[in-house]
Amino acid sequence: MKKTVLPGSQNSSPSTPPPTANELFSPRIARYLALALVVAVFTIYIPALHFNFILDDHRFTGDPRLQSPGHVWEYFTSFVWAQVPGGPLSFYRPVFLLWLRLNFILSGASPFAWHLFSIAKHIAVALLLGLLVWKLLRDRAAALLAAALFALHPAQTESVAWVTVPDPLMSAAVLGSLLFYLKYAESASGATQPLTSRANRKLRKQVFTKSNNDLSLLWLIASAAACLLALMAKETAIILPAVLFTVAFAMPSNKPATRETKNETKHRAEEKSLTQQETPSLGTRLLSAVRQTLPFLAVTVVYLLLRLNALNGQLATLTQHLPWKTVLLSWPATLWFYVKVLFWPIRSRAFADPALADTFSIRDVLLPALGVLCAAAILASACVWAWKTARRNLRDREATGVEVALLLGVLLLTLPILPALDLNALNPGDFLHGRYTYLPLAGLTLLLATFWHLAKSFRPALLATAGVTVVVFSVLTIKQEPIWKDDLAVFTEAHQLAPNNAPVAQSLVRAHVQQALALDEAGRCDEAMLIFEDAIRQYPQDWYAWAGQGECFFKLDQLTRAEQSLRRAAELSQLPRVTEEWRMVREKMGLPATPLE
Predict the structure, then answer these.
(1) Are 44 and 478 in contact (CB under 8 A)?
(2) pLDDT band at 129, cuts 50/70/90?
(3) What secondary structure, in 3-state letters, does 297-314 show?
(4) 486: phi then psi, degrees, rounded to nearest 5
(5) H helical segments located in 138-239
(6) Alpha-carbon gap, residue 109 to 111, rounded angstroms
(7) Confidence of residue 453 (pLDDT cuts 50, 70, 90)
(8) CA gap 67, 61 in Å, rounded
């Protein structure tokens, strides 16, 4: 089986200079800079330690399955929202629930500790990305550049300050799987430099001893295990087997050299009859790629079977039924939204108005499509330039690392966005969110680091530009971070960003109701009542405000009106606890606790 030749193989020729000749930083300085980056990211996110739980955090932290032991098996046999009566039959994420359970064990219901772990998780993902860049390019400055741009990108505030977002956990497992796979490919490959004698050819055959084969197998098992963890953290990781297959197929071994030293050229000429090999055929490469991807396909099948069991025989469920014409016409605007999140994060794009197009139009379809095509063309041109530059100027081993970096960057940038185009599986009216770019940002920064690595004389200027960008990103992150301090702040900002987003508008009203409930607890029912009345006027079918109003009437000793409000809340919610409150009021009034008809 042909193996991918990757940088970092231990079988390099002594005459070959290490691929660190153009390094800007020594290992010690690089470690100091990495530590400084960790401190900077943590410092920037320190305010989040004092934020409250928001959005889905409340449901998860109040989930009995997470609060008490003995429910771990349920994480693997049921869907995420199984604890919510009538919850949507979607999202199978047992590893994500395990992470939340660990948070609860260590932190209880303390938002401070949950946010601390969330920041640490984000830093860990940035460091893994830096390790991936170093593994491929052997360039410490490029690794630090990628990690800094990724960690400080303003779009990441949503996934860091909102503690129950699964994307960082999934991304950590995805990057871990890629690193393990690269170690497997490295340990399983043959010599990466031309051999200079027949004796060395025989020696190469002896390299693949049983112990080396065992080590290679362990790296492959570790990579497949990390792939399974990623799948069980979030569904988007389904792209990973395709990513690894593409890398294995596109990077055959034994490529002809493109640049050699004089000694290498002389040795190659002397030993040409012994060492020259033909490039593997298409069929050979395809078979090799399939074989290397089999473990990942196997764990994917295991995941899908477990998912089928948890979702009652369904792989996915529909949340809305938009016509395919509408879905297709809406793709350009949807993709353009994510292009702006990635490349122009000057303001928060955590929420947006739904970009639905029922008919073709220049404004809603053609212009966004042109914008996406322009961005894709620029990116493709940069990748072609980088590929040609690497093949022209670098030795095979280094050029292969650049090629793998380019390929992984493009795949990680584009493939995770594809699930966000399945609009019928997303929240109706509220399906555009900046957090969906968390893993794509890893791909983008990997590409940027690769471009910088090949820029030669332009590297100092580009590094200065990158430094300015990091500072600007830091300022924007600090500016956008307070959005996530509590539900009211989230939806106040969200409503300003997306005034036509119906779910956001309703959530904002609910956030005001939560504020009114706090007033109620403080004995300020008169003030709270005005908020309840306004919420009921806007959303008469939302039980939440009716229940709050009923509690306030009860405290004001207006039992008749309390009974009417709680009855309406019980009818709308069908929740046992609300029904019980209504019955208690009826009993206090001397009325029979009649069940709802």
Answers:
(1) yes
(2) very high
(3) HHHHHHHHHHHHHHCCCC
(4) -160, 175
(5) 140-152, 157-161, 167-188, 198-207, 210-233
(6) 6
(7) very high
(8) 7
Closest CA to 189 of 13, 3, 10, 396: 3
**Alpha carbon distance 179, 160 (integer Å):** 23
Could you tell me which residue, 127 or 276, shows the higher pLDDT? 127
Task: Quote the CA–CA distance of 509 and 528 in Å, as a whole number.
Answer: 13
| pLDDT score, position 2 | 44
Instruction: Please give the Cα distance from 397 to 404 (Å, whole number).
Output: 11
Q: Please, are residues 72 and 216 in contact by the beta-carbon 8 Å criterion?
A: no
Token digits of residue 92: 């199978």
- Amino acid 256: pLDDT: 37
Q: Which amino acid is at 280?
A: P
Query: pLDDT per residue over 254-274, tens digit each?
Result: 343 334 444 444 444 444 443
pTM recorded for the entire structure: 0.87
The mean-pLDDT minimum among 7-16, 41-50, 92-101, 565-574 falls in 7-16
- Looking at residue 227, its amino acid is C
Q: Are the beta carbons of 468 and 403 closer than 8 angstroms?
A: no
pLDDT at 594: 64
Q: In the numeric block, which tokens belong to residue 268?
A: 């190659």
Rounded alpha-carbon distances, angstroms, from residue 406 to 246, 258, 341, 386, 455: 12, 18, 21, 8, 14
- Structure tokens given for 64: 């009995």
Instruction: Indicate the pLDDT class of residue 301, thresholds 50, 70 and 90.
Output: very high
- Token pair of 183, please? 């170690």
Contacts of 336 (CB under 8 A, 6+ apart): 368, 369, 371, 372
Please, which residues have CB within 8 angstroms of residue 15's CB and are 6 or more apart in sequence? 261, 263, 264
Q: What is each CA distance from 143 to 22, 287, 356, in whole angstroms?
A: 14, 33, 39
Q: At what angle do helices 487-497 and 502-521 cross, to 10 degrees?
A: 150
pLDDT over threshold 70, residue 312? yes
| Tokens describing residue 95 | 């590893």
Residue 569 — φ and ψ, nearest 5°? -65, -40
Per-residue CA distances from 519 to 78, 491, 516 (Å): 37, 19, 5
As a whole number of angstroms, the distance between CA 285 and CA 83 comes to 47
Q: How many whole angstroms separate alpha carbon 63 and alpha carbon 475? A: 36
Query: In angstroms, rounded to a whole number, what is the distance separating the alpha carbons of residues 246 and 244?
Result: 5
Give the number of other CB atoms < 10 A from CB of residue 174.
28
Listed in sequence order, the residues at least 6 apart from 241 whose beta carbon sits closer than 8 Å to its beta carbon are 227, 293, 296, 297, 300
Q: Which residues of 311-330 are buried (b: 16+ CB within 10 A; e: fewer)?
A: beeeebeebeebeeeebebb
The one-letter amino acid code at 261 reads: T
Q: Residue 418 to residues 2, 128, 272, 335, 433: CA-CA distances in angstroms?
A: 31, 23, 47, 9, 14
